């Protein structure tokens, strides 16, 4: 039967075109074709067809006090949030923390991966909602070259978008996917619930690199505690 409701037709067309645009943006960000994502998808086969590289070594865990010392000693900091920040609603304590650090003369910025969160732009909206200035929220292509000159990176609830296997392991199922090159900075603190894998179900070698420290636990509780302790340390 014919659809005689023009409004319904217009709304349907808008939804369809919006979905197509979002799909295109995400495919470009993952360096994959639409057919590859729909028919193959992540978690099935690697592009090179070989066995993924085995990760060796042990991870280093730190506590809140260690993290605060590292934050206080750093002059330049980049924060790379992921879906874990969205799920924990940790954008508000992080926004307060960034404000405090900026007032202390530190250079603090955010690095946003195009597919971080559940859709493109989700993290930008959440950070804006929490009052983070637009000029310190940068896209991956704008900030990737700055990591080697950065003292500290805070990875909050992100995994696949900062996975070095995308560049270092041609047999990884995410090989070739553009990622935030956080491991090139002097020090990295990864804040996440556990050492578990992300959406792509791929182990992350950066957890075991010598310049990476793991601060495990709920992102909201960890960010709240960090914000409170940093405030306390600057008030002494």
UniProtKB/TrEMBL annotation:
Stored InterPro entries: DHS-like_NAD/FAD-binding_dom, PNTB-like
Main location, first listed in the record: membrane
Highest taxon of source: Eukaryota
GO MF annotation list: proton-translocating NAD(P)+ transhydrogenase activity
Alphabetized Pfam families for the sequence: PNTB
EC number(s) on file: 7.1.1.1
Swiss-Prot/TrEMBL catalytic activity: NAD(+) + NADPH + H(+)(in) = NADH + NADP(+) + H(+)(out)
Species of origin: Homo sapiens
Protein name (Swiss-Prot/TrEMBL): proton-translocating NAD(P)(+) transhydrogenase
Compartments, record wording: Membrane
Cell cycle listed as a keyword: no
Keywords associated with the record: Membrane, NAD, NADP, Translocase, Transmembrane, Transmembrane helix
TM regions (residue ranges): 7-26
Domain NADP transhydrogenase beta-like positions: 3-228
């Amino acid at each position: 039967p014919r659809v005689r409701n023009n409004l319904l037709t217009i709304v349907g067309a808008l939804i369809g075109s919006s979905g197509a645009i979002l799909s295109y943006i995400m495919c470009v960000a993952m360096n994959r074709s639409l057919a590859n994502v729909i028919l193959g998808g992540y978690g099935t086969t690697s592009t090179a067809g070989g066995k993924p590289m085995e990760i060796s070594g042990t991870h280093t865990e730190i506590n809140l006090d260690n993290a605060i010392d590292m934050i206080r000693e750093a002059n330049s900091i980049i924060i790379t949030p992921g879906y874990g920040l969205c799920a924990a609603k940790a954008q508000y304590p992080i926004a307060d923390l960034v404000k405090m650090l900026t007032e202390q003369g530190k250079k603090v910025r955010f690095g946003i991966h195009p597919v971080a969160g559940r859709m493109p732009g989700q993290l930008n909206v959440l950070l804006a909602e929490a009052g983070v200035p637009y000029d310190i929220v940068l896209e991956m292509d704008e900030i990737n070259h700055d990591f080697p000159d950065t003292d500290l990176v805070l990875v909050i609830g992100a995994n696949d978008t900062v996975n070095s296997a995308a560049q270092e392991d041609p047999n990884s199922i995410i090989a070739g996917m553009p990622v935030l090159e956080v491991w090139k900075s002097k020090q990295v603190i990864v804040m996440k619930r556990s050492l578990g894998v992300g959406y792509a179900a791929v182990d992350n070698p950066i957890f075991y690199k010598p310049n990476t420290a793991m601060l495990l636990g709920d992102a909201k509780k960890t960010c709240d505690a960090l914000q409170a302790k940093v405030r306390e340390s600057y008030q002494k």
